[in-house]
Specification:
432 residues, mainly alpha, Rhopdopsin 7-helix transmembrane proteins, two-stranded antiparallel sheet, two-stranded antiparallel ribbon, 15 helices, G protein-coupled receptor activity, G-protein coupled receptors family 1 profile domain-containing protein, membrane, GPCR-Ligand_Int, transmembrane
């Protein structure tokens, strides 16, 4: 379909066509995404670093969920780091025409895109592994077939094996990014975009064209590949990566697992040990809230991304510029929710569990302030008290040792010296 008449009839400006077909930099949804990503990303980078240190230093390593939390902090950190780099690069390109991600080499470009998509997939599937671990531990759905299944799966060694398997699987799935993508440059503007077909070339006097002359370089599928290879890569990216591995399969597992966990948590049960049951239940509720928050904030972006990859080509064929812009707005806003999901895990499983919250306060040195003392657990209060007592005794011992080495001058009244006092030798304090 030739869109020239449609564009002329609706009198689209060059800016609107750029937003739809090339780059939406400068739009209000673009600014919202950039500022929100840098804010949530900065908070998330600091929070995930604190999470990793707290979980490594103060958690009991024999529990399986500790391994998932460590891995999740690492994958979330690198996912946020990639997102912050991309947002900062977009901001610098828009304001100062400075491209900090101008790789100039296809090898570096391949490695960057490959690592980025591996971290994105691992951040998603680590949450799935953590939720499945809680499902087996609490619900034990296959207890009749495998009576000791929870002991075999919910342990340290099995958690490590599952994490390494997920890493291996993510590396294999994302190989097309490493094989087919290259560093490709083209002129900026909608007239040079892949969405704008050459047969739709407009009379530039009828449209206020605001395209720039600088090149737009990205890591994308190279036009040098054959039509079959390009089609194969596009189909893999849409249906294998986004639809199946990134959206449908993890969403089904998370929804089913969380539904079963919530049913067990709210079902009446016989309490064997009240204190242990309380701690276990609170920890499980916190980890379940992490999974549910991830499900609510993370998957809208996955769904919008998948739908945009499927529907936008048909919108381009039907010249539906408004529909394309609507999807771009939804994509930017849902991407911000995605960044928020990666950035607020810190507040859920560090601030939500008393032990980890107290450990974070102690590690950051906030226990010196009275306002944070009430959030410390008895264990950490005793630990801080014993450290303070040891320091006090050590200082007192050093002070006593220093005092014992002080020489005292003893005055002796010697009658043979006309009643005038004479001086004896120096003696220590404890030699008298």
């Amino acid at each position: 379909m030739n869109c020239t008449e449609e564009f002329q009839r609706k009198n689209y400006s060059g800016t609107t066509l750029n937003y739809a077909m090339d780059d939406d930099a400068g739009s209000w949804w673009w600014w919202t995404n950039i500022i929100g990503t840098l804010c949530f990303g900065g908070i998330g980078l600091i929070g995930n670093t604190i999470c990793f240190l707290v979980v490594c230093r103060f958690a009991l390593p024999q529990h399986s969920f500790v391994q998932y939390l460590r891995a999740l902090a690492i994958f979330d950190f690198f996912s946020l780091l990639f997102e912050c780099f991309q947002s900062l690069n977009s901001l610098l390109v828009y304001l100062f025409s400075i491209n900090i991600l101008h790789f100039r080499s296809s090898i570096i470009c391949k490695i960057y895109e490959y690592s980025n998509h591996v971290c994105i997939l691992l951040a998603c599937w680590t949450i799935v592994g953590l939720t499945f671990d809680r499902l087996i531990l609490l619900c034990d759905p296959w207890s009749k077939q495998c009576p000791n299944l929870s002991r075999k799966i919910c342990n340290l060694q099995c958690a490590k094996k599952i994490i390494f398997f997920l890493i291996f699987l993510a590396l294999i799935i994302n190989l097309p990014h490493l094989i087919y993508q290259q560093w490709v440059c083209r002129q900026s503007g909608y007239r040079f975009s892949a969405a704008f077909n050459a047969k739709n070339e407009l009379n530039l006097t009828l449209i206020n064209n605001k395209t720039t002359n600088h090149s737009n370089c990205q890591c994308r599928i190279s036009p040098e590949h054959g039509r079959f290879v390009v089609l194969l890569f596009v189909q893999w990216k849409i249906y294998v990566f986004h639809l199946f591995c990134y959206t449908l399969l993890p969403a089904v597992i998370l929804i089913a697992s969380n539904a079963a966990i919530l049913q067990v948590l709210h079902a009446p049960r016989q309490i064997v040990g009240q204190q242990n049951e309380h701690i276990r239940s609170k920890l499980t509720r916190t980890l379940t809230s992490v999974s549910l928050m991830f499900l609510v904030l993370y998957f809208p972006h996955a769904i919008v991304e998948t739908l945009s990859l499927i529907l936008i080509p048909s919108f381009n064929m039907r010249c539906a510029i408004r529909s394309i812009i609507i999807f771009r707005v939804l994509k930017r806003l849902s991407e911000l929710l995605n960044i928020a999901a990666l950035g607020i895990n810190f507040f859920l499983y560090i601030l939500g569990v008393n032990h980890y919250r107290s450990a974070a306060i102690q590690m950051l040195g906030l226990h010196h302030f009275d306002i944070f003392l009430k959030y410390l657990t008895v264990e950490h209060r005793n630990s801080i008290g014993s450290i303070a007592l040891h320091t006090h005794n050590s200082n007192r011992r050093n002070t006593t040792t220093d005092a014992s080495s002080i020489k005292l001058l003893k005055v002796i009244n010697n009658g043979t010296n006309n009643g005038s006092p004479t001086l004896s030798g120096y003696r220590t304090r404890f030699s008298r």
